[in-house]
Amino acid sequence: MSPNSKEVEILSIGTELLLGNIINTNSQWISEQLSILGLNHFRQSTVGDNCDRIIKVIQEISKRSNLLITTGGLGPTPDDLTNEAIAKSFNVSLYERPYLWEEIKQKLSNSNLKDDSSSLRKQCFFPKNAQIINNPRGTAPGMIWEPIKGFTILTFPGVPSEMKTMWEETAFKFIKTKFSNSYSFFSNTLKFAGIGESSVAEKINDLLNLQNPTVAPYANLGEVKLRITAKAKNDLEAEKIIKPVKEKLKKEFSKFIFGENEDTLPSVLIKELAKRKETIVFAESCTGGLLSSSITSISGSSQVFKGSIVSYSNELKNSLLNISDEKLTKYGAVSTQVCEDMAINAKKKLGADWAIAISGIAGPYGGSKDKPVGLVYISISGPNNHITNIKKIFNSTRNRIEIQTLSVNVSLNSLRLILLSDSK
């Protein structure tokens, strides 16, 4: 192994990961952090709560990499074996750090924990020369330890919030100082709605072959991302490298780019409506409150969101939204006519500037030849008697949750485009 290779591996420890009981989001997050630091990261491993297997994997990694980052197995239960396995991997003993036990008791506000019996105390034992990583959000500390020359181990709990805080407060600076070369990677992500990944890729084929910056497309349900990554000596230099590519994309896809980095459709809409000092309400049928949930998941939504009416049955469409029995019978609940009235009446009844209504057939049952599964109507009612009606037929191979989620995305993006047009 070259002493200058600076190769890094991630080891996730926990039987629950192998069983699929928990999604391993830690490895994804750490991978992104390593990219920011400009470190080579070629391998990830997952192993269950078995001491012998953990030892075997750690010994293998120590022969081929410079840095090992582990998550999981630092807690107080019998199956938390990380520190024990690491010590045995290099034939060393674990020693108690008494001050950690006092800190744990303070964190738990329980100074009466028995010193000789509490399982929590096992979290205080580490190799003799290990540096402790403080855990501000939990009781299990991590460590930084170099058991053999040229190989360092950093350990973190499996709880994502604890791991991230420990990384940001301690590990990032340590890794950057000891392992990162003079270059680092800086990324800027553009987010698209209303266009598919293949359509984006076809139009940017020349950009996909760039070496610095690189441009990579990613697709989520109802959303496409383009990550522009530059390698440079500092963030300012990287931003200069990224700028011309970013400007070209914004010009090419001005209608479809709704935000950058951490932006979401709900957060972008909240910001725009707040700027305009306007409010919004919803009338939901097939989405059953998912549209409302998407907005209220954003801090600050109370500035613009007044509430919603989830009228799943025809009876509630009639009593709460004043949809006439005649219209429901003639056109059906899933129709432009009914959806439009849902939006207009919700806006009036709840006293807002804007209203979005959704009615459709999310499946997998309830469809017909005339109204198949995946058929969704969206209506947007706004100031000055503005009304926009949208009919979407999502692929019937989509499952129920996907159809509901796509319906929410389309409705939010449609309002975004209306507001964008108004501002010009």
Strand order of the largest sheet: 2-1-3-8-7-6
What would you give as the CATH superfamily of the largest domain? MoaB/Mog-like domain
How can the largest sheet be summarized? 6 strands, mixed
Radius of gyration: 27 Å
Number of strands: 17
Structural class by sheet pairing and helices: alpha/beta
Q: How far do the termini sit from each other?
A: 59 Å
Stated plainly, the CATH topology of the largest domain is called Molybdenum Cofactor Biosythetic Enzyme, Chain A
Count helical runs: 14
**Any idea how many domains?**
3
Global geometry: elongated
Helicity level, as a percent range?
25-40%
CATH class of the largest domain: Alpha Beta
Percent in strands = 25-35%
CATH architecture term of the largest domain = 3-Layer(aba) Sandwich
Average pLDDT, rounded to a whole number, is: 93
Low-confidence stretches: 1-5
Notes on the protein architecture:
This protein is an alpha/beta fold. The chain folds into 3 domains: 7-178, Molybdenum Cofactor Biosythetic Enzyme, Chain A (3-Layer(aba) Sandwich); 184-260, Alpha-Beta Plaits; 265-423, Maf protein, CATH 3.90.950.20. The chain contains 14 helices and 17 strands. The strands form 4 sheets. The chain has a 6-stranded mixed β-sheet, with helices on both faces. It has a 5-stranded mixed β-sheet with strand order 14-13-15-16-17, with helices on both faces. A hairpin with a 3-residue loop joins strand 16 (375-382) and strand 17. Mean pLDDT is 93; it is low at 1-5.
